[in-house]
């Protein structure tokens, strides 16, 4: 494909209470289905979107966190989480979903999709992306 | 919005015939929808329908057709994980048609 663009989806809000998190995920899946080069970043309260053990039964809203585990099937292999945002909330990568992808070039070995990056590194990633979509 | 009558029960469907409520699904619903489109459901069709239901159960989405094809290949073998095989089973599109029979929403990324 000649004009594959790098899309970075920036997620900065808590998963429930607004539609942003779910809308972002749907757009990501659509973009990835069209074989665009997609990466995701979670900052601020956005880090809560990919926390383990979500339970929405008290909210009466669908818990869509299992869908993040499908991202690997959609060849979304780059999921960045800002370290400062985790630190500020007392979270570590252990509190996050175990998101994996299979590396086609490495005999389909399962690899971690999540990479914790500093605010500075994230700024650089945003700078290098063709399109940044903020949710 | 319309309804379909399966085994004496009125089930709500959207304008394209997808079930409104996932929980309404039974194998009879798939049989009914297939018959309505002049399609017989074979063992091979059921493999795909059941796969989709399991996928939805796990990930809460209906997979895009590219993802479905790859995942079917992994689970059921290479000879089944290709668009030719899947389109032969579901000529209206494996995503759309099989998801409909499986009682799932239209696949995300299917525009």
TrEMBL record, chain A:
Domain of life: Bacteria
UniProt similarity note: Belongs to the DsrF/TusC family.
NCBIfam families per the UniProt record, alphabetical: sulf_tusC_dsrF
Name of protein: tRNA 2-thiouridine synthesizing protein C
Originating species: Thiohalophilus thiocyanatoxydans
Automatic annotation (TrEMBL), chain B:
Pfam family, one: DsrC
Keyword field: Cytoplasm, Transferase
Any GO BP annotation: tRNA wobble position uridine thiolation
Catalytic residue list: 110
Gene3D superfamilies recorded: 3.30.1420.10, DsrC-like protein, C-terminal domain
Subcellular location: Cytoplasm
Domain of life: Bacteria
Alphabetized GO MF terms: sulfur carrier activity; transferase activity
GO cellular component term of the entry, any: cytoplasm
Entry EC number(s): 2.8.1.-
Database matches in InterPro entries: DsrC-like_C, DsrC-like_dom_sf, DsrC-like_N, DsrC/TusE
Family as reported in the entry's similarity comment: Belongs to the dsrC/tusE family.
NCBIfam families membership: dsrC_tusE_dsvC
UniProt function note: Part of a sulfur-relay system.
Protein name: Sulfurtransferase
Organism: Thiohalophilus thiocyanatoxydans
Lineage: Bacteria, Pseudomonadati, Pseudomonadota, Gammaproteobacteria, Thiohalomonadales
């Amino acid at each position: 494909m000649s004009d594959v663009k790098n899309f970075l989806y920036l997620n900065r809000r808590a998963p429930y209470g607004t539609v942003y998190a779910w809308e972002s995920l749907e757009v990501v899946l659509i973009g990835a289905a069209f074989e665009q080069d997609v990466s995701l970043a979670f900052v601020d309260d956005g880090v809560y979107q990919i926390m383990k053990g979500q339970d929405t039964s008290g909210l009466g809203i669908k818990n869509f966190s299992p869908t993040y585990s499908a991202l690997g099937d959609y060849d979304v292999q780059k999921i960045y989480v800002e370290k400062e945002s985790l630190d500020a909330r007392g979270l570590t990568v252990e509190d996050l979903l175990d998101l994996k992808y299979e590396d086609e070039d490495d005999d389909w070995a399962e690899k971690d999709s999540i990479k914790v990056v500093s605010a500075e590194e994230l700024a650089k990633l945003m700078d290098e992306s063709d399109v940044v979509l903020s949710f | 919005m319309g309804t379909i009558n399966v085994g004496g029960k009125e089930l709500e469907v959207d304008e394209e015939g997808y079930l409104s409520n996932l929980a309404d699904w039974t194998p009879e619903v798939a049989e009914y929808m297939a018959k309505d489109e002049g399609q017989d459901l074979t063992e091979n069709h059921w493999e795909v329908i059941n796969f989709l239901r399991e996928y939805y159960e796990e990930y809460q989405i209906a997979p895009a057709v590219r993802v479905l094809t790859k995942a079917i290949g992994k689970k059921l073998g290479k000879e089944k994980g290709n668009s030719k095989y899947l389109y032969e089973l579901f000529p209206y599109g494996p995503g759309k048609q099989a998801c409909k029979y499986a009682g799932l929403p239209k696949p995300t990324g299917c525009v």
